[in-house]
Specification:
The protein is built from 9 helices and 10 strands. It has 303 residues and is of the alpha/beta class. The strands form 2 sheets. Strands 2-1-5-10-9-6-7-8 form an 8-stranded parallel beta sheet, with helices on both faces. Strand 6, helix 6 and strand 7 form a beta-alpha-beta unit. Helix 1 crosses helix 9 and helix 4 packs across helix 5.
Length: 303
Protein backbone atom coordinates (compact mmCIF):
# COMPACT_ATOMS: atom_id res chain seq x y z
CA UNK A 1 0.00 0.00 0.00
CA UNK A 2 1.15 3.52 -0.85
CA UNK A 3 0.48 5.96 2.03
CA UNK A 4 -1.22 9.22 1.03
CA UNK A 5 -1.43 11.98 3.64
CA UNK A 6 -4.43 14.23 3.07
CA UNK A 7 -7.10 16.12 5.00
CA UNK A 8 -10.22 18.05 4.02
CA UNK A 9 -8.88 20.78 6.31
CA UNK A 10 -6.52 21.69 3.47
CA UNK A 11 -9.60 22.75 1.49
CA UNK A 12 -10.45 25.28 4.20
CA UNK A 13 -7.41 27.41 3.40
CA UNK A 14 -9.43 29.89 1.37
CA UNK A 15 -7.59 32.20 -0.99
CA UNK A 16 -10.43 33.76 -2.97
CA UNK A 17 -12.42 32.69 -6.01
CA UNK A 18 -9.94 34.05 -8.54
CA UNK A 19 -6.72 32.87 -6.87
CA UNK A 20 -4.64 30.26 -8.69
CA UNK A 21 -3.74 28.38 -5.49
CA UNK A 22 -7.25 27.20 -4.69
CA UNK A 23 -8.91 24.20 -3.03
CA UNK A 24 -9.93 22.73 -6.40
CA UNK A 25 -6.29 21.79 -6.96
CA UNK A 26 -6.45 19.15 -4.23
CA UNK A 27 -9.96 18.07 -5.15
CA UNK A 28 -8.82 17.33 -8.70
CA UNK A 29 -5.95 15.16 -7.48
CA UNK A 30 -8.06 13.32 -4.91
CA UNK A 31 -10.81 12.55 -7.43
CA UNK A 32 -8.28 11.27 -9.95
CA UNK A 33 -6.61 8.97 -7.42
CA UNK A 34 -9.79 7.61 -5.84
CA UNK A 35 -11.28 6.74 -9.23
CA UNK A 36 -8.13 5.13 -10.66
CA UNK A 37 -8.00 1.38 -11.21
CA UNK A 38 -5.24 1.13 -8.61
CA UNK A 39 -7.13 3.08 -5.91
CA UNK A 40 -7.26 -0.01 -3.69
CA UNK A 41 -3.48 0.19 -3.36
CA UNK A 42 -3.59 3.67 -1.79
CA UNK A 43 -3.72 4.07 1.99
CA UNK A 44 -5.29 7.44 2.79
CA UNK A 45 -4.12 8.79 6.13
CA UNK A 46 -5.02 11.88 8.13
CA UNK A 47 -1.92 13.88 9.12
CA UNK A 48 -1.00 15.20 12.54
CA UNK A 49 -0.85 18.87 13.45
CA UNK A 50 2.75 19.98 13.60
CA UNK A 51 4.12 20.96 16.99
CA UNK A 52 5.01 24.64 17.18
CA UNK A 53 8.57 23.67 18.09
CA UNK A 54 8.85 21.79 14.80
CA UNK A 55 7.79 24.87 12.84
CA UNK A 56 10.19 26.95 14.94
CA UNK A 57 13.10 24.98 13.49
CA UNK A 58 12.77 27.42 10.59
CA UNK A 59 10.41 30.24 11.52
CA UNK A 60 10.77 32.59 14.51
CA UNK A 61 7.90 32.58 17.00
CA UNK A 62 7.10 36.17 16.07
CA UNK A 63 6.26 35.08 12.51
CA UNK A 64 4.34 31.96 13.58
CA UNK A 65 2.26 33.96 16.06
CA UNK A 66 1.73 36.68 13.49
CA UNK A 67 0.22 34.16 11.06
CA UNK A 68 -1.95 32.76 13.85
CA UNK A 69 -3.25 36.18 14.87
CA UNK A 70 -3.94 37.22 11.30
CA UNK A 71 -6.03 34.09 10.78
CA UNK A 72 -7.82 34.50 14.11
CA UNK A 73 -8.82 37.99 12.99
CA UNK A 74 -10.44 36.51 9.89
CA UNK A 75 -7.49 36.51 7.51
CA UNK A 76 -5.50 38.89 5.36
CA UNK A 77 -2.40 39.05 3.18
CA UNK A 78 1.07 37.76 4.05
CA UNK A 79 2.33 39.36 0.86
CA UNK A 80 0.55 40.60 -2.29
CA UNK A 81 0.26 37.01 -3.61
CA UNK A 82 -0.39 35.11 -0.37
CA UNK A 83 -3.80 35.45 1.29
CA UNK A 84 -4.81 33.56 4.43
CA UNK A 85 -8.26 32.94 5.87
CA UNK A 86 -9.60 31.96 9.28
CA UNK A 87 -8.63 28.28 8.84
CA UNK A 88 -5.31 28.84 7.08
CA UNK A 89 -3.17 28.63 10.22
CA UNK A 90 -4.60 25.21 11.07
CA UNK A 91 -4.16 24.06 7.46
CA UNK A 92 -0.56 25.31 7.40
CA UNK A 93 0.29 23.50 10.65
CA UNK A 94 -1.35 20.38 9.27
CA UNK A 95 0.70 20.68 6.07
CA UNK A 96 3.93 20.72 8.07
CA UNK A 97 2.65 17.79 10.13
CA UNK A 98 1.83 15.85 6.97
CA UNK A 99 5.38 16.26 5.66
CA UNK A 100 6.81 15.13 9.00
CA UNK A 101 4.40 12.18 9.19
CA UNK A 102 5.39 11.28 5.64
CA UNK A 103 9.08 11.36 6.50
CA UNK A 104 8.44 9.13 9.51
CA UNK A 105 6.65 6.63 7.26
CA UNK A 106 9.41 6.63 4.67
CA UNK A 107 11.96 5.95 7.38
CA UNK A 108 9.93 3.03 8.74
CA UNK A 109 9.13 1.33 5.44
CA UNK A 110 11.91 2.42 3.10
CA UNK A 111 9.24 3.02 0.46
CA UNK A 112 7.70 6.15 -1.11
CA UNK A 113 4.96 8.24 0.48
CA UNK A 114 2.68 11.00 -0.83
CA UNK A 115 1.75 14.27 0.86
CA UNK A 116 -1.19 16.07 -0.73
CA UNK A 117 -1.46 19.34 1.14
CA UNK A 118 -1.83 23.07 0.87
CA UNK A 119 -0.68 25.75 1.42
CA UNK A 120 2.58 24.91 -0.34
CA UNK A 121 5.94 25.78 1.20
CA UNK A 122 9.03 26.15 -0.96
CA UNK A 123 8.91 29.96 -1.27
CA UNK A 124 8.41 30.59 2.45
CA UNK A 125 11.39 32.28 4.09
CA UNK A 126 11.97 32.33 7.85
CA UNK A 127 10.19 35.61 8.54
CA UNK A 128 8.06 35.92 5.43
CA UNK A 129 5.32 33.95 3.73
CA UNK A 130 5.37 34.55 -0.02
CA UNK A 131 4.51 33.04 -3.38
CA UNK A 132 1.35 31.31 -2.01
CA UNK A 133 3.46 29.68 0.76
CA UNK A 134 3.04 30.03 4.54
CA UNK A 135 5.46 27.62 6.28
CA UNK A 136 8.53 25.95 4.73
CA UNK A 137 7.10 22.41 4.70
CA UNK A 138 9.94 20.56 2.98
CA UNK A 139 12.74 22.36 4.81
CA UNK A 140 11.11 21.79 8.21
CA UNK A 141 10.65 18.09 7.42
CA UNK A 142 14.27 17.81 6.29
CA UNK A 143 15.57 19.38 9.50
CA UNK A 144 13.29 17.13 11.55
CA UNK A 145 14.63 14.10 9.69
CA UNK A 146 18.24 14.97 10.46
CA UNK A 147 17.45 14.66 14.16
CA UNK A 148 16.27 11.05 13.72
CA UNK A 149 18.52 8.04 14.15
CA UNK A 150 20.05 6.77 10.91
CA UNK A 151 19.46 9.93 8.87
CA UNK A 152 22.70 11.77 8.10
CA UNK A 153 21.92 13.45 4.76
CA UNK A 154 18.64 14.70 3.31
CA UNK A 155 18.15 16.03 -0.22
CA UNK A 156 15.29 17.96 -1.77
CA UNK A 157 14.62 17.79 -5.51
CA UNK A 158 12.32 20.65 -6.49
CA UNK A 159 10.82 20.16 -9.95
CA UNK A 160 8.27 22.96 -9.50
CA UNK A 161 8.53 25.45 -12.37
CA UNK A 162 9.36 28.21 -9.89
CA UNK A 163 12.64 28.17 -7.98
CA UNK A 164 12.25 27.35 -4.27
CA UNK A 165 14.02 30.36 -2.84
CA UNK A 166 12.92 29.53 0.70
CA UNK A 167 14.25 25.97 0.69
CA UNK A 168 17.52 27.10 -0.89
CA UNK A 169 18.02 29.85 1.68
CA UNK A 170 17.44 27.46 4.56
CA UNK A 171 19.80 24.82 3.12
CA UNK A 172 22.54 27.20 1.96
CA UNK A 173 25.11 26.68 4.72
CA UNK A 174 24.09 23.20 5.90
CA UNK A 175 26.48 20.50 4.67
CA UNK A 176 24.07 17.65 5.47
CA UNK A 177 21.26 19.11 3.38
CA UNK A 178 21.23 19.32 -0.41
CA UNK A 179 18.87 21.18 -2.71
CA UNK A 180 18.52 20.72 -6.46
CA UNK A 181 16.03 22.60 -8.61
CA UNK A 182 14.90 22.61 -12.21
CA UNK A 183 12.92 25.76 -12.97
CA UNK A 184 11.94 28.16 -15.71
CA UNK A 185 14.18 31.22 -15.92
CA UNK A 186 13.55 34.05 -15.97
CA UNK A 187 10.47 33.67 -13.77
CA UNK A 188 9.30 34.41 -10.24
CA UNK A 189 10.99 34.68 -7.74
CA UNK A 190 14.16 35.45 -9.73
CA UNK A 191 16.52 33.25 -7.71
CA UNK A 192 18.11 29.96 -8.75
CA UNK A 193 21.01 31.00 -10.95
CA UNK A 194 23.66 28.47 -11.94
CA UNK A 195 26.26 30.15 -9.77
CA UNK A 196 24.12 29.77 -6.63
CA UNK A 197 25.77 26.61 -5.31
CA UNK A 198 25.68 26.90 -1.50
CA UNK A 199 28.40 27.18 1.10
CA UNK A 200 29.29 23.50 0.75
CA UNK A 201 28.49 23.05 -2.95
CA UNK A 202 25.26 21.50 -1.70
CA UNK A 203 23.00 23.50 -4.03
CA UNK A 204 22.44 22.63 -7.70
CA UNK A 205 20.32 24.95 -9.82
CA UNK A 206 19.32 24.08 -13.37
CA UNK A 207 17.48 27.05 -14.90
CA UNK A 208 15.70 26.20 -18.15
CA UNK A 209 14.27 28.52 -20.81
CA UNK A 210 10.56 28.99 -21.39
CA UNK A 211 9.18 26.41 -23.79
CA UNK A 212 11.36 23.57 -22.53
CA UNK A 213 9.90 20.09 -22.94
CA UNK A 214 11.00 16.58 -22.09
CA UNK A 215 14.07 16.78 -24.33
CA UNK A 216 15.49 19.65 -22.29
CA UNK A 217 14.35 18.22 -18.96
CA UNK A 218 15.77 14.77 -19.66
CA UNK A 219 19.12 16.31 -20.54
CA UNK A 220 19.07 18.38 -17.34
CA UNK A 221 18.16 15.34 -15.27
CA UNK A 222 20.80 13.07 -16.79
CA UNK A 223 23.61 15.63 -16.88
CA UNK A 224 23.03 17.63 -13.69
CA UNK A 225 20.23 16.60 -11.34
CA UNK A 226 20.79 12.86 -11.02
CA UNK A 227 24.61 12.99 -10.88
CA UNK A 228 24.31 15.60 -8.12
CA UNK A 229 21.84 13.48 -6.12
CA UNK A 230 23.75 10.23 -6.60
CA UNK A 231 26.96 11.95 -5.50
CA UNK A 232 25.30 13.36 -2.37
CA UNK A 233 23.93 9.89 -1.45
CA UNK A 234 20.94 11.04 0.59
CA UNK A 235 19.42 8.81 3.24
CA UNK A 236 16.12 10.44 2.37
CA UNK A 237 14.89 12.28 -0.72
CA UNK A 238 12.07 14.81 -0.52
CA UNK A 239 10.50 15.87 -3.80
CA UNK A 240 8.88 19.29 -4.00
CA UNK A 241 6.47 18.15 -6.69
CA UNK A 242 5.05 21.07 -8.60
CA UNK A 243 3.05 20.38 -11.74
CA UNK A 244 3.26 23.92 -13.13
CA UNK A 245 5.98 22.79 -15.55
CA UNK A 246 3.24 20.86 -17.33
CA UNK A 247 2.07 22.05 -20.73
CA UNK A 248 -0.65 24.67 -20.42
CA UNK A 249 -0.12 25.88 -16.87
CA UNK A 250 -1.38 29.48 -16.58
CA UNK A 251 1.65 30.71 -14.60
CA UNK A 252 4.46 29.26 -16.71
CA UNK A 253 5.46 28.27 -20.22
CA UNK A 254 6.96 24.79 -20.00
CA UNK A 255 5.80 21.85 -22.12
CA UNK A 256 5.99 18.66 -20.06
CA UNK A 257 3.38 15.96 -20.66
CA UNK A 258 1.81 14.07 -17.78
CA UNK A 259 4.02 11.06 -18.54
CA UNK A 260 7.14 13.12 -17.87
CA UNK A 261 6.25 13.40 -14.20
CA UNK A 262 6.22 9.62 -13.88
CA UNK A 263 9.58 9.45 -15.63
CA UNK A 264 11.04 12.01 -13.20
CA UNK A 265 9.62 10.03 -10.27
CA UNK A 266 11.26 6.83 -11.55
CA UNK A 267 14.62 8.60 -11.71
CA UNK A 268 14.16 9.78 -8.12
CA UNK A 269 13.37 6.25 -6.99
CA UNK A 270 16.61 5.06 -8.58
CA UNK A 271 18.46 7.41 -6.22
CA UNK A 272 16.59 5.96 -3.24
CA UNK A 273 13.18 4.41 -2.64
CA UNK A 274 13.10 6.36 0.63
CA UNK A 275 11.31 9.14 -1.18
CA UNK A 276 8.52 11.55 -0.21
CA UNK A 277 6.56 13.29 -2.96
CA UNK A 278 4.85 16.42 -1.62
CA UNK A 279 2.66 18.85 -3.54
CA UNK A 280 3.96 22.33 -4.27
CA UNK A 281 2.56 24.25 -7.29
CA UNK A 282 0.59 23.46 -10.41
CA UNK A 283 -2.47 25.43 -11.43
CA UNK A 284 -3.99 23.60 -14.41
CA UNK A 285 -6.34 21.06 -12.83
CA UNK A 286 -5.95 18.48 -15.61
CA UNK A 287 -2.17 18.59 -15.24
CA UNK A 288 -2.43 18.07 -11.49
CA UNK A 289 -4.72 15.07 -11.91
CA UNK A 290 -2.88 13.32 -14.73
CA UNK A 291 0.57 14.24 -13.39
CA UNK A 292 -0.13 12.70 -9.99
CA UNK A 293 -1.58 9.61 -11.63
CA UNK A 294 1.67 9.23 -13.53
CA UNK A 295 3.78 9.66 -10.38
CA UNK A 296 1.54 7.18 -8.55
CA UNK A 297 2.06 4.50 -11.20
CA UNK A 298 5.81 4.99 -10.93
CA UNK A 299 5.72 4.59 -7.14
CA UNK A 300 3.46 1.54 -7.21
CA UNK A 301 6.05 -0.21 -9.39
CA UNK A 302 8.39 -0.37 -6.38
CA UNK A 303 5.79 -1.16 -3.70
Amino acid sequence: MLPVYYSDTFLEHLTGADHYERPARLTAIREALTSANFSDRLDWRHPSLADINDIARVHPMSYIQGVEQLCLSGGGMLDPDTPVSSKSYEAAKLAVGAWIDGVRDVMLTGKPVFVLCRPPGHHAEPEEGMGFCVFANAAIAALWALEQEGIKRVAVFDWDVHHGNGTQKLFWDHSNLAYVSTHQAPLYPGTGKLEETGKHKNICNVPLPAGSGWLEYEQALQNSVMPFLHSFQPDLLLVSAGFDCGDGDPLAEMKLSHAAFGDMARMCLQVTQRCLFGLEGGYALDNLATGWLSVTKACLEVM
